[in-house]
From TrEMBL:
This is Nucleotidyltransferase family protein. Gene3D superfamilies: Spore Coat Polysaccharide Biosynthesis Protein SpsA, Chain A. InterPro entries: MobA-like_NTP_Trfase (IPR025877), Nucleotide-diphossugar_trans (IPR029044). Keywords: Magnesium. SUPFAM superfamilies: Nucleotide-diphospho-sugar transferases. It comes from the Bacteria. The keyword Magnesium applies. Residues 28-141 form the MobA-like NTP transferase domain. It comes from Sphingobium naphthae.
Amino acid sequence: MTGTVTAILLAGARPIPDPLAQAAGVAVKPLAPVAGEPMINRPARALLEHPAIGEVIILTQRADAFAADPATAWLAAHPRVRFEKGGQGIASSLLAMMDAQALPFPLLLTTADHVLLDRAMLDQFVGEARGADIAVAMVERATLLARYPQSRRTWLKFRDGWWSGANIFWIGSDKARRLIALWQEVEQDRKKGWKVLAAFGPLALIGALLRISTLRGGMARIGRRFGLTARLVAMTSPEACIDADKAEDVTLIEAILAAR
C-alpha cells in the first residue's frame, strides 16, 4: 500500500482571531509552538514518514507564512508537499479543490493541530478505512478518560457510547461529494452535535437523542441513504482525539510528548 493515499493537511485560519496564534504572535495557529516547534511540523512528519502516504497537500490561506518561517520552510521545499489555497470552511475548500483538479482517491484528511498523530494511529485508520467511500475516526469517552481524565472534549451520545472526533477523515471516492456538500451546510454548527445530526435526517437525530441508535449503525445507515459506504473507525489510542485547540490542550500534549 506504499504511497497510495493522498493526505490533505488542514492548516487554515478561522474568521475570528485564534487565541493560541495571538498568544504566540504568529500569523496562523499552525505556526504556534508546541513542545518547541510549530505545531504543524509533527503531523506533517507523521504523514510523510508513513508508507501509505504519497503526496501531502497543505490547505491554507497563508502559504507565505509557512515559507517565511525558518522552522516550517522545509515544508515549502519538500518534494512531496504542495500548498493549496484554502477558503473560510473545510468543506467548501475541499469541494473547490475537488472541482478545480483531479484529486486522486483515496484522500486522508487531518489537521495541523493534531500534534500527537503518529504511525500507530495512521496504521489503524488506513487499515480500517480502506474500501469505504467515507470514514471518520472517533474516540469513545471511556478510552480517553481512562488515561486522561482531565481532558475536555465535545461528545456525541449514542447507545454504544459517547464519542468525540479524532480529526482524521477518509474520502475513498467521488461518491463522498454529497456528504461533503451537506457538511458544508452545517460546518458552522460542528460543535453543536444535535444540529450536525439533524442534517443527516430525523432518524439520526431521534436515534441519538433516544439512545436507540449506535454510532456504527447510524453511520452505515447514513451511508446507505446517500448510496455509499460510510464507516466509523473507533480509534484505540486515546491521544487520537487530543488536539491543540486550547492552552490547556497544549500543556497536556507537551506532557505526553515529554513522556514518550
